[in-house]
Amino acid sequence: MAAALTPLRRLQHRFEYWLFDWPEQTGHRAVNLLAIPLRYAYALLRDLFGGDLGLRAMGLVYSSLFALVPVIAVSFAVLKAFGYHRELEPVLYEFLRPLGAKGYELTAKIMLVVENAQTTVLGTVGFVFLLYTVIVMIQKIEGALNFTWHVERPRSLARRATEYLVIMLIGPILMVAAMVLLTRIEASDMIAKLSGLAGSAGGRGHYTPYLLIIGLFWFLYIYMPNTRVRWAAAFIGALFGGAAWVGVGAIFTRIAVYSTQTAVIYAGFAIVLLFLIWLHFSWLIMLLGGQLSFYVQHPEHLRTGHGEIPTTSALRERIALAAMSLLGQRFIDGGPRWRVSDLADHLDIPASVLDGALSLLEDRGLVLTAEDDTVAPGRDLATITLAEILDAIRHETPDPRRPEPRAVPLADAAARKADQALHASMADTTLRDLLQTAAPHNDTTTG
User: Mutual orientation of helices 409-426 and 386-394 as an angle, nearest 10°?
Assistant: First the structure.
């Protein structure tokens, strides 16, 4: 199998050279402009066929089966307090429109179950299960988008309790309010004349579902990842996700309409089968849009994607020293603590690479992570030596799974000598000494 993969791997390397290296070497602006969209297309296709996004989408489909009715029930309860609970049904149908006539049937069945749940006394256990299912669903979405953004640290429990509550309460209101507002705007005479829809009542509101989808994707891409996402990058991903959702939905609708033989074979289960397939496509499109947002904000990862990011020992040591310097300077200046996402963005490195260094520093007590996902020095700066910082990166905590090579006296003695020399050169310099001897930098207090 390895021999069969070798030619494919070589072909991939040659294609990447042609796509990423060759345009830069030619120096022609037209060639570079042509290569840029091809790089994004290649990165998305590579991630799509790599399998990881597909597995995440399948996991979200599985979670959706349990959380669909509870999520709609919670949204129904929130909207009922404002008198807009009836507006939830057309919003739900817009997401099921690609199922064709089956979408009407499935929407009616879901709303019937939700209304029955609202009129039934669930009890404490039922309510807790309902709430737990909704929270798990939101957590799954956060985890999937964190994966697309190379973020390994999820939100802390304190932030989940508050931010998930905001999503459950504000999300349904904003979604329904946006659809009602867009429908009223497009139905106005002035907008109808400007858009050429005057005299065509059937065409009014035609673009409302698409704007709603784009807005929903935009909200997810900005709010859900546990990192700072620039609005422009999220908007580009939302435009791609919305356009892909509409395009795939149109194709899926035609397939659903003309697949009469499938409906006959599966009888009453046809609607369930179509629903599962559409859910998978919807989540996959959402993840691809999030992946595009990441690449727009971090184009340097177009080539590597989700592959292992190559780092060296020297680079990891430099990142650790830089992170500790920024944390120490912010502490001295009395400013707000750094968030991991802001720190990674300031250093212009992936959050996953920074997380690895911070985890090693935290194991040695040099870094402390607060409940709000901010980080700060774990001890007094005058007691943290540069040698300790380097030791935390160079000598990780013991792990029985890590191999222990057979001793080679001459080589081991040379390695110890080099390590002792490095340690001795940094043992007498503390982090406070380093920051006091350096001139103050304005960029250490931003972020």
Answer: 150
Report the largest interatomic distance among the alpha carbons of the chain, rounded to a whole angstrom.
90
C-alpha pair distances (Å), 405 with each of 280, 312, 392, 402, 416:
47, 20, 21, 10, 15
In the block, which residue shows the tokens 């297309």? 41
**Domain residues for 381?**
314-399+406-445
Contact 207, 242 (CB under 8 A): no
Contact status, residue 216 vs residue 175, Cβ threshold 8 Å: yes
Q: Name the domain boundary from 251, 275, 301.
A: 301
4-10, long-range: CB < 8 A, 24+ apart: none
Alpha-carbon gap, residue 309 to 225, rounded angstroms: 20
CATH number of the domain within which 346 lies: 1.10.10.10
In tens, the pLDDT along 75-114 reads: 666 666 666 656 667 767 777 777 767 777 777 777 776 6
Beta bridge partners of 95: none
Q: How many domains does the chain have?
A: 3
Q: Who's near 317: CB < 8 A, 6+ residues apart?
A: 390, 393, 394
Taking the CA atoms of the chain, what radius of gyration do you get in angstroms?
27
Tokens of 218: 């935009």
Determine the Cα–Cα distance for residues 367 and 357; give it in Å rounded to an integer: 10
Give 233-302 as a DSSP string: HHHHHHHHHHHHHHHHHHHHHHHHHH-HHHHHHHGGGHHHHHHHHHHHHHHHHHHHHHHHHHHHH-GGGT
Same domain for 283 and 171: yes
C-alpha–C-alpha distance, residues 357 and 341, integer Å: 14
pTM (two decimals): 0.71
pLDDT digits (tens, 9 = 90+) for 260-310: 555 555 555 666 777 788 889 989 999 999 999 999 988 878 888 777 777
278/361 same-domain check: no
> In this structure, are 131 and 238 located in the same domain?
yes
Same-domain status, 218 and 276: yes
- Residue 99 near residue 274 (C-beta atoms within 8 A): yes
Cα–Cα distance, 385 to 431 (Å, whole number): 6
CA atoms of 26 and 111, how far apart (whole Å): 60
Q: Please check whether residues 241 and 336 belong to one and the same domain.
A: no
- Between residues 203 and 149, the one the model is more confident about: 149
In this structure, is residue 306 part of a structural domain? Answer: no
